[in-house]
Amino acid sequence: MKNIIVIIICFFLNISFAQKDDWKTKYEQKWENYDNGTKLSVTNNNLLSITYKIDYNPVNLKASIPNGTYVVIPGKTKDFLIVDFTKIDSKKGWKFNKGNTLVYLGDITDTDYDEDYVYDLPFEKGTSFKVAQGYNGDISHQDKFALDFDMPVGTKVFACREGLVVEVVRNNTKNCGKPSCADYNNLIKILHSDGTIMQYLHFRKNGVRVKVGQTVEKGQHIGFSGNVGWSTGPHLHIDLYLTDKENNYKTLKTSFKTDENDITKELKHKVTYTKSY
Ligand SMILES: [Zn+2]
User: Fold this and answer.
1) Distance from the alpha carbon of residue 140 to the mean position of ligand 1, in angstroms
2) Total-model pTM
3) pLDDT by residue (tens digit) across 114-133?
4) 259: domain range?
């Protein structure tokens, strides 16, 4: 009986780990030795690209690419060759020490994006909401270009830009004012054609209306707002970001269409915006 309990506990621990660190469970590394050396290939089962920074110290082996190279593996790709090590002196043995190999979600080598893109406001036509916290806000947006809109639980949320849904979390209920509660954010992440990702946070339990792998249109209803995760009052948080080599998560400024003919470069703290289109 004791063994069964241990097995069941382990099973649940594995499940919770997989949910928390989802994308890392979706790639596999494969080393293949052959007569003249060894090679590494990676299968990426994520929808998003991953970037692999190689760092090995080979002895009697010549690498096909220099140490420190960033290799991008497209999403949904099987057995992508990362590096091939061939013997230098065929009469001697070979070995290598693994250094600080890093793997990132996304293509971190491409930091160009469409800076002039104009986003739609994330709520319904004819409604108005106040920016409760803007860029670099002192509650939770320090050094971030993020926006919080005050809105009652259950308000319809709309996609600011068309793209591919790459991550959703929908079942959480807990909330608090500490960063640790970010682990409980219900969320949607949408990948855009220029490689940027917009994340929408704090949906109510089961308020997410899209699935991973689904393509959404600009202005499509994607969910119902809530107060779940790192949140102390009903609101919608959005931010646009790219992953980069320095800090692995870099938020970007976004322009919004604030009226039929108006573009606002930066939505401001405490200002109420109406979506008239
Ligand atoms: Zn926020």
Assistant:
1) 6
2) 0.81
3) 999 999 999 999 999 999 99
4) 118-274
